[in-house]
Design a protein that fits this description.
Blueprint lengths: L1 E5 L3 H12 L3 E5 L5 H9 L12 E3 L10 E4 L6 H8 L8 E4 L12 H8 L5 E6 L4 H4 L5 E7 L2 H11 L4 E5 L3 H23 L6 H18 L16 H6 L4 H11 L8 H16 L4 H11 L4 H9 L8
Helix pairs in contact: 3-4, 7-8, 7-10, 7-11, 7-12, 11-12, 12-13
């Protein structure tokens, strides 16, 4: 497969590294203005990994037209703009693989829907989701992930073409649930970090149980299968998000309540906004996600809000 990877940050660079590792022909794209890309062009490495000599680097987006599949790993809120740029190319018949998690704030739409709505070329859209951190993968620590799509043929083909000893892929059966579950997982990660920062880490068990249940309600309200929240897209990704030292969202939540700055992208911050608007639209009760939104954007006191969350009136567990 000729793969064109768009995005030269931590995850995009890993995607390129991994595709090369399992034998695909890879070109990694980054904007010429990107500091990450300039470092890669000079040294062929970043803080996480070193690229092989086989991987091509380019600052020309037009080269995407020569690939069989495009793997996109950019800030989710910039996806629509990127698709506008891609409309200058002939991409009909190609596969677009979204290696990112989020919900578009302005519209509340899933990322696959943004691509299908914006791209003029007829393409097949897939998503690559699930647990794992670059720091662990490059050390040879294996994990499982999921590929989903409205095209059974595409997800079966990608599951076979992308699986290796490092990552075992499964194909999903609920694109709606997998995308929403993966995005909402980052908001739960923010809440986990806040608990860590406040010395309340013992409440993470309750956070995981109740978080999964409330996300399942949102998935169902949006037309997906609520059971998807208990799969790799959400609950299966909790170890990497709720506990790991490498989780950007967990670290952001911890630093936020401690009054510290955070480095690196925490997609859950923007996703908290999107989910807030979705809950208003759907009328779904999502107390954890609403608590995170209130703390981040309504200046609610973190300790008071989280105490309130876990001291709700007596009721059945779920």
């Amino acid at each position: 497969m000729k793969a064109f990877v768009i995005g030269c940050g931590r995850w995009g660079t890993f995607i390129s590294w991994y595709l090369d590792l399992i034998g695909h022909e890879v070109t990694l794209y980054g904007r010429s203005s990107s500091a990450h890309m300039q470092t890669l062009l000079r040294t062929r490495r970043n803080a996480y990994l070193e690229l092989s000599d086989r991987e091509r680097l380019t600052t020309e987006l037009s080269e995407a037209a020569d690939a069989d599949a495009l793997f996109i790993s950019v800030n989710s809120q910039g996806l629509r703009s990127l698709c506008g740029e891609l409309n200058g190319l002939t991409l009909s018949g190609k596969t677009i693989v979204l290696c990112m998690k989020g919900i578009e704030i302005a519209t509340g739409k899933r990322l696959s829907a943004v691509v299908e709505e914006t791209l003029r070329s007829k393409v097949t859209v897939c998503v690559w989701l699930g647990p794992g951190h670059v720091q662990e993968y490059v050390k040879g620590h294996p994990n499982c992930m999921v590929i989903d799509s409205d095209s059974p043929e595409a997800k079966a083909r990608l599951t076979a073409e992308l699986s290796g000893e490092l990552i075992r892929f499964y194909y999903g059966t609920d694109l709606i649930g997998n995308e929403i579950g993966a995005a909402a997982k980052n908001v739960i990660g923010l809440a986990a970090g806040m608990l860590d920062g406040l010395g309340l880490s013992s409440l993470k068990g309750a956070l995981m149980a109740r978080g999964t249940r409330e996300v399942s309600r949102l998935i169902e309200a949006k037309g997906g299968d609520p059971i998807s929240a208990y799969g790799l897209c959400h609950l299966g990704d909790y170890e990497a998000t709720v506990f790991s030292e490498f989780s950007h969202n967990r670290r952001y939540g911890e630093n936020f309540v401690l009054g510290k700055e955070s480095e690196g992208l925490a997609e859950g911050v923007e996703t908290a906004k999107a989910i807030h608007f979705m809950t208003l639209e759907c009328g779904v009760d999502m107390p954890i996600c609403e608590a995170v939104y209130s703390i981040l954007f309504e200046h609610a006191d973190p300790r008071s809000k989280l105490d309130e969350l876990f001291e709700r009136s007596l009721k059945a567990e779920f």
